[in-house]
Amino acid sequence: MRSLIPPFICLVMLLSFTACGGDTANKLEVEMFKGDFATVNSFIFSNGKSIIVMDVQRKTAEAKQLAERVKAYKLPVTHILITHGHTDHFTGMPLFRDEFPDAKIVVANDDIRKDIKAYAIYMDGFGATDAEPVLEPPLRPKSAENPDGFDYENTIHLLNDDTLTLDGGGTLELTTDYKPAEADHMTTVYSPELNAIFLSDFGYNRVHHWQGDDISWQDIANWREELVRIKNEYAGRNPTVYPGHGDVGDMSMFDAMIGYIDDYTRIVQAAKTREEAMEKMTALYPGYGEADFFLKYSIHNHIRE
């Protein structure tokens, strides 16, 4: 029998935490919304009193589905956190601004805000691949020529701290001191109440890693280094691991991702043609998602023909 639960919604964890004085506080939960395009994930954090949303999809149609899911909670949305400057995580910003006008769109630092605007300009010009849609009009930057465009500087707010606290309780701890990797600047999030780490695009689970566009071999080496660092930092806590792309997992994901980077580096650097690299990578990683998108354009980036 076909499931009645929509495939893009996955309620993955529900844990409670205790307030000072011994009283049980509102339960903190996270719901993972799985987008169809680019297998990108968004997250809804709620505690029965308020909501924080993390990342808002690549297509407005899917951002609309995410917004409807958020509305079903019937709770105020206080913040919309964008983890980094790639369109598959921020395209839904104009829709969320309009649907939740009291919520602040926030980033962890000014570097990420600059990355978001720069990537929007890039995608509006020549950045779209054959597999990726062009930038949607509401994201075109505001200017004298485009006065109704998106005002990145004034719509995206900077956080003053490395934590976000939900109204009613529950803390998200933000880390940004990473080397350039899948993106120049990235935010990971740890929830002590859930004992869960949200890797943003450091994390891929059975999905080919995006290593296209201007991701250099040094960026890929940095990515591997940071995965080792994060793994070692959180090993003693054994958290649940939520990737930016793919299904929720555990700490074993780190070894799988590190192994993938090693295999990609070895195979692609030795390959004589793009076709050879594609054949070897897909044979080594059968069933991995986004072979015709992420893997294809990563190989195009690193093997020039």
Using the CA coordinates, give the radius of gyration.
Answer: 19 Å
How many beta-strand runs?
Answer: 14
| Total of DSSP H or I helical runs spanning 4+ residues | 9
User: Outline, from the CA principal axes?
Assistant: globular
SS content category: alpha/beta
Key descriptive features of the protein:
34% helix, single chain, disordered N terminus, alpha/beta, seven-stranded mixed sheet, globular, 305 residues
Provide a quick synopsis of the model.
With 305 residues, the chain is an alpha/beta fold. It has helices at residues 60-71, 87-90, 93-99, 110-125, 152-155, 217-234, 252-270, 274-284, 291-302; strands spanning 9-15, 28-34, 41-46, 51-54, 77-81, 104-107, 156-158, 163-165, 171-175, 188-191, 196-198, 204-205, 240-242, 245-246.
What would you say this structure looks like, in words?
The structure is a single chain. This protein is 34% helix and 19% strand. It has nine helices and 14 strands. The strands form three sheets. The chain has a seven-stranded mixed beta sheet with strand order 1-2-3-4-5-6-7. The protein has a five-stranded mixed beta sheet with strand order 8-9-10-11-13, with no helix packed on it. A two-stranded parallel sheet has the order 12-14. By secondary structure, it is α/β, with parallel strands linked by helices.
